[in-house]
Amino acid sequence: MPPRTRGGYTSTAPRRRPTGSERRRRVQLREVEPEHPRHDRDETEEVLEGAPGGPIDRCILRSFHKHVAAKIWLGEDRAPLKLVNHGAKLQLWELDVERSRIYETVQRSGLAPLISCSHRVASRPMLSAFCERWQPETTTFHLPFGEMTITLDDVASILHIPITGSMISFSQPLRVDDANALLVELLGTTDVEASRETEQCRSPSVRLQWLRENFSTITDVSSDDDIDFATRAFLLHLVGCTLFADKSATSVGVVYLELFRDLSMVGSYAWGAACLAFMYRQLTTATRFEVRQLGGYLTLLQAWIYEHFPEMFSSPDMAYIESRPRALRWRPHVIPDSLQSLRERLDRLQISDVCWEPYVDHRAEHPFPDIAWFSGCIKCGLVVEPYHPERVLRQFGHIQTIPPRPFAPPRPDRSILLDQYWERWTDHVLIDHSRGRRCHYSGESVAEYMAWYDRISHRIVQPPHLRSGFTTDARSSLPSHTASTSDSRNARALRLLRHVISGGRQQSGDYFWGALNEAHSILAGSDETSASHSTPSPAPASHSTPSPATRPFFCPPTFVYPPPASVDPPPATVDPDPSSPVAPPAPAAGPTASTTVYVRSKRKKKT
Hints:
Layout: H1 20-32, H2 41-49, H3 68-73, E1 82-83, H4 100-109, H5 113-117, H6 124-131, E2 134-135, E3 140-143, E4 146-148, H7 152-159, H8 176-187, H9 191-201, E5 205-207, H10 208-215, H11 224-241, E6 251-253, H12 271-286, E7 293-294, H13 298-308, H14 310-313, H15 339-347, E8 376-380, E9 383-387, H16 415-423, H17 432-435, H18 449-456, H19 472-477, H20 484-503, H21 509-523, H22 528-534
Helix pairs in contact: 4-11, 6-15, 7-12, 8-9, 10-11, 20-21
């Protein structure tokens, strides 16, 4: 059969080298070709289309139309997520003195802190509210003032598990037959028992309860093989309840049992990096509107929120000492607020509400790990997620700059390249130039960062017309908002005016006029419609007052505020008789107040 050439036709003639004129003609065609785009038409339309409430530029958040925050902005709502938390199950399998040999192996693995630091209580509204702000493309939480995320430094400080070592890799998904073979080889079960358990789970998994029932009774007096079987079963039960808790809520994958084949090598894995990649993937899955459940190690996520937002959500344990994991610093509790209330609280977050460097006191016991500056992909088996420290420089004490575009993770089948990339992590950390300068104050960013962030992000989750405190009539009278810029202006101005109104007339004049000035400056760039709804009417005055459009920015406008309805108007004043004493104002009436009557004659006053 004749060979097929690149042009799509067949020919037996030998190929000849193109001449110089033909090469120049091909170069000219390549220069003209971009004027007629072919395959990137849909991509361009997607970037320029934007989304209701933001982002205006979808070059970063390309899948935002599937995000739960987009549905919430359009009026649809989702109940708080169901949480998969196994903190109480860890107490059902205790390693006491009779099982000291098992505990010694667990301690050498680096996973022993997970036994004591797991939270037994998790707050559904709080974790659901933060999950609604997770963006899969950047693997960060998008808050009103910028991006934040869980870093490798957070994992090491909160959990005290290793974040350096070999990456956890699996070449392919585990089949049920292979799972049965692993159970027989590494746990000492029979073929019948292994098949019955995987059939009950309907997957290559085993139930956590099955592990406890079959291996929790083994003690130090048992044979060496039985102790090894029980140690592997306990480690599988431990990671299934903590690091790799999936949404099945009752089982753990047998694929992790391969990591415990050689018990002397368990401590050589980067368990913290694998836990972080698994947590990233669970948050990404939960951002879809149809998902109703959140997996992963929720103690890590909840403790991270407590560390960085201590004044809003946390309840510290006063008996904590810095030598223990930071997860034990907090007493977990259920937030009494509703999900809608927490959305609004997060919408009102300021930079000053964040503790950007919470581990300063912890550095003496746990120094900062340099691998936290690694920029690349982290992996947990077939789960590959990007890790971007350049997007959260403020969490490292550096000034936040505009980060480069996030990179898409490679395919999981290229695991060998990812492992080699991770093993040479010292060659892939952010250089000093990319880290930028140290902050002069916490949460500092460059001047152009917020303008860029407002264009590419969805800063406000709860729509302004659906917030608490708005009546049905007020909601129907509000104009429809489609641009995130005007929404953010209105939200900031309303927040300032709310402080002014709540302060009443007892507040100082400087604060009063300063707040109004700032609200006026925020709304200065909005359209005439929003200004007419947000700006009070200026008071009539005898002298000419410049209109709001021509008034200078620094000139405070004049407003008329009617007196409260509960205050009676003062009586008409009459000049008193010079010979009579001046009557002071009468005290407030009440059950214990005495009344004094003043008369004009020189007689004594009666009480």
